[in-house]
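Because discrete structure vocabularies remain unfamiliar, it helps to consider an illustrative case, giving the amino acid sequence and backbone structure tokens:
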Amino acid sequence: MTEFDHEVVIVGLGPTGLTLANLLARRGVDVLVLEREPEYYGLARAVYTDDEGMRIFQTAGVADELAADMNIDSTVQWVRGDGKVLAQFNQIERPLGWPVSNFLYQPYLENSLESALDRYPHVTVRRGRAVTGFDQDGAGVTVEHAACTGTGYGKREAEIDAHSTERVRARFLVGADGGRSIVRTELGIDMSGTSFPERWLVVDLKAADGIDAFRHLPYFDFVCDPELPIVSCPQPDGHHRFEFMLREEQTREEMEDPATVRRHISRFVDPDECVVLRKLVYTFNAVVAVRWRAGRILLAGDAAHMTPQFIGQGMNSGVRDADNLSWKLTAILRHGADPAILDSYETERRPHAKAMIDLSVFNKNIVSLSNPVLAAARDIGLSTAVRVPGLGGWIRTAKVKPAPRFRRGAYLGQPRPLLRGVQGRLAPQPEVRTYDGRHRKLDDTLGLGFAVLGYGADPRRAFSEADLEALRALDTRFVTVYPLGGRPQGKPGEGRDDIADIEDHTGVLTRWFRRARLRPGGVVVLRPDRFVFGTATPQDSAALVAALNRQLRLSPRGNKPGPAPCPVPAGTADGGAARHLHPL
């Protein structure tokens, strides 16, 4: 089989798969999404996204719609059992253009993401289709799938109709099929890390019609009560979640009993004013797959890493995976980049995902202390820390959260200097002023591909014609950034070509250029995920373009898109020839 039915097959229709499908679709990539469950789950799991996640949804073209259904800028606080506040974070600055704190109701988010796919005729979504086998060679992946009754999201064994099997051929396969990933299992990839024995009861509530049942619970609370650690989470549209830690002697049956649930939530709400949507005892894992790529097959989201729920970053880590993968797959499929660039997916994403896992475990250890002496010491330590100059501000503005930057030597981009380097870091996203006096978020002026920002000058002037040709082959957008009041008047007819020019009326970008040690006339190259690839002056811009070509494995003047060979993992029979499909 030499022809391809699709360019990318995604397994799994959760937030990671949905985000990846939207990002690829918006860039014109033909996508097939396979989901084992015939019916939508319809209940919440994730409850939070941050400004990084919202910026990615902005790239996917769905952020404004999603934001309309979110509880934004909520304070997050650690409180004692009696309600006394120990510490808070409530950052209201928006360095990435979106609120840092966004509480969501996952069914709304997933419905919006899935509905957004309807606008793309080159996306096919197949529910009730289980992957039954897959294999790859140097050019692509063959995937078999069949009709499936689903598991009811873990409630029963799935039944697969072997007579309904279909076979498709794609350039790449992405397993975004959750913690029990069939793609990861079939590849024989293990998970490393820790499975925690602590059990928690999650209770999802909905206010009864016409009753404002949760008005008195305005913030997200980690209730640090050694007798009963609790999480209280506000959600939009009359939803609220509680999580209660079980004692060792308590059973699942006891805790999920309606009378027990009623007794626990009565501490905070009137049980007669709300409806219990879900009650479930669960444990959690802090694990990472030992590898995320096998040739043309990749893992993303919970299939690659599982994050405890204590900082709300599990879903967001998967969304970041989708952002990283989408532009690299597009560069391969549309611009002739070498599939070897996919090795950078894991080297870039693994350290950040692992840091989020470690922070979540750290917060779990703070919240769930049951020893009264240690809990008292924690309370004193937290309440004291927020009063210490410097440290208090660091806590209140959530600076403890791992920053969006890549580890030195492990990313696609120029090396980052030891001091004041912006390479490998996520660029800020301020509001900017367009030539016609409108305010827009920066990314909305940059397109969906690479972007070159010129500090106070047309960035094209910094490059030779050959280098401009190479950049244009990547669908690069060129943008001039003027300081406030610095836009030139010009002559009739000037400024009507294809370059965008914006005014940095907030001063954020001007200060950022200076921190990057750029002078007027210098340029910054942003990757499609808005991490900085590199910076240059007109004198060394040729080296910047050469680095871009070299790291994407492009020819000096760019390549036309076309099939690129991809090494098959070691151990593949016949040195890359197609193997027989393995039934799962």
Q: What stands out?
A: The two ends are 22 Å apart (CA to CA). The first helix runs from residue 15 to 26. Residues 562-584 have pLDDT under 50 and may be disordered.
